[in-house]
Specification:
Blueprint (H helix, E strand, L loop, with lengths): L1 H18 L2 E5 L4 E9 L3 E6 L3 E6 L3 E4 L4 H5 L5 H4 L6 H4 L4 H4 L14 E13 L3 E13 L3 E14 L2 E15 L9 E11 L6 E17 L10 E15 L8 E15 L2 E12 L2 E16 L6 E12 L9 E12 L1
Antiparallel strand pairs: 1-2, 1-5, 2-3, 3-4, 6-7, 6-17, 7-8, 8-9, 9-10, 10-11, 11-12, 12-13, 13-14, 14-15, 15-16, 16-17
Length: 340
C-alpha cells in the first residue's frame, strides 16, 4: 500500500509541468504547448517538452490560453483599482467647512408654480342693479413653458332696507396649452364660466369654449432697451363652445362663437395692467350675442410684501333678455389684494 502511494505521488509530480503548460495558438492555426519563461513587447519565450526553447514573435500569436496576448499578460486589477470608491469611511466623509475654509450655502428654495391672490374691494354696479357693496375675490394661476392656467372666483352681495338687490357669484377658469414641441406660436385655449345672479332674468348661466390663441404683439424691454415698460403681450383668440341658461327667454343649449383677445402689460415689477374682451355670438342667430370684458390694474405697495392696490372693471352684455331685465352689468371695484 505504501509503495503504491509513493508511485502515485511520483506520477503527479511528473505530470504537474504538463498540467501547467500554456497553450499558444499561432496565426497560421498551429498550436504549441509549453511553459512561458519570459515575454516582452516583441516576443514570447516558451519551454517546449519536445522542441526545447522557442522564441515566438508576438505578431505571430493569436491567443494564449484562449485570450489575446495583451489580456493574458495584463495583471488583474487590485480591489482599489477595480472600485475607486472603495475607500475607508473617513475618506468618504466630506471635508468640514473648517477644513476647506468654504462656507456651505443653503439650497435656494424653488418658487412655487402656483401663485394666488386674495382681494377685498369696495364695488359699484350699474345695469341690472344699481348699488354699492363689498366684493371678495380669490385668484390662482400658474405659467410655465408649456401651459398657463388661471382660476378666479368672486362674490358680491348688496341689500337696501333689508331687501337683497344683488347677489352675484362668478367662477371662471382659463387654460392655455402653448405647444412648444410643435415649434408654433399658436396655442390651444379652453375656458369655462359660471354665473349665478338671482336678479338677472337668466339667474344661472354656464358657458365654455375651445379654440386657438395667437400672439398678435410681443414687446419686451430685454429685446428693446429703449422701451419705457418691461413687457407688453397682446393675444388674439377664436373658438366655439356651448352656453346654457337655466331661466329667462332661452333655456335651450346654445352653440356660440368666441372671438376676442387678452392683454398683459407689465409697466414695472410693481405695476401691471391686464385686460380681456370676447364677442360671443349665437351661431344659429348672429343677432343674438353676448359681450364679456374685464380689466384689472395692480400697483404693489413698497415695503409691504404681498400687498397691492387693485382697480377692476367687469362688463357683461347680453342682447336678448326678459322685458323687465336690463341687458348689461357694469361692475367697478377698488380695493386691496394680498399675494400668496
Amino acid at each position: 500500500m505504501t509503495q503504491s502511494l509513493k508511485m502515485l505521488f511520483t506520477v503527479l509530480l511528473l505530470a504537474t509541468p504538463l498540467l501547467a503548460q500554456d497553450e499558444i495558438v499561432l496565426t497560421g492555426g498551429d498550436t504549441l504547448k509549453g511553459t512561458i519563461t519570459r515575454h516582452d513587447a516583441e516576443s514570447v519565450t516558451i519551454q517546449h517538452t519536445a522542441l526545447g526553447v522557442l522564441v515566438i514573435p508576438m505578431d505571430k500569436i493569436t491567443t494564449i490560453d484562449g485570450r489575446t496576448p495583451e489580456l493574458h499578460f495584463t495583471p488583474a486589477p487590485t480591489a482599489s483599482e477595480a472600485d475607486p470608491t472603495a475607500s475607508s469611511k473617513d475618506d468618504a466623509k466630506p471635508a468640514s467647512d473648517e477644513a476647506t475654509g468654504e462656507e456651505t450655502l443653503e439650497p435656494t428654495p424653488e418658487k412655487p408654480e402656483w401663485k394666488g391672490s386674495f382681494s377685498l374691494s369696495g364695488s359699484y354696479n350699474t345695469g341690472t342693479a344699481e348699488n354699492a357693496a363689498l366684493l371678495i375675490k380669490i385668484s390662482l394661476g400658474r405659467d410655465n413653458d408649456y401651459e398657463t392656467t388661471n382660476l378666479s372666483t368672486f362674490y358680491r352681495f348688496a341689500s337696501a332696507d333689508g331687501v337683497t338687490n344683488q347677489s352675484w357669484y362668478n367662477l371662471t377658469g382659463n387654460q392655455l396649452w402653448k405647444l412648444p414641441e410643435l415649434d408654433t406660436k399658436w396655442g390651444i385655449f379652453a375656458d369655462a364660466q359660471f354665473d349665478w345672479s338671482e336678479q338677472n332674468s337668466w339667474q344661472q348661466r354656464i358657458a365654455g369654449h375651445l379654440g386657438g390663441q395667437y400672439p398678435l404683439l410681443i414687446m419686451k424691454k430685454d429685446d428693446d432697451p429703449d422701451l419705457w415698460f418691461d413687457s407688453l403681450t397682446v393675444n388674439g383668440r377664436i373658438g366655439i363652445g356651448p352656453r346654457k341658461e337655466f331661466s329667462g327667454v332661452n333655456t335651450e343649449l346654445v352653440a356660440e362663437g368666441d372671438l376676442g383677445g387678452n392683454l398683459d402689460w407689465q409697466f414695472t415689477d410693481k405695476h401691471s395692467l391686464t385686460a380681456n374682451a370676447s364677442y360671443l355670438p349665437d351661431l344659429a342667430d348672429f343677432d343674438i350675442y353676448r359681450v364679456d370684458a374685464g380689466l384689472n390694474w395692480k400697483i404693489k405697495l413698497d415695503g409691504m410684501d404681498g400687498l397691492a392696490l387693485v382697480l377692476g372693471v367687469t362688463y357683461q352684455y347680453q342682447s336678448e333678455v326678459s322685458e323687465d331685465d336690463k341687458n348689461y352689468d357694469l361692475l367697478t371695484t377698488f380695493g386691496v389684494s394680498y399675494d400668496f
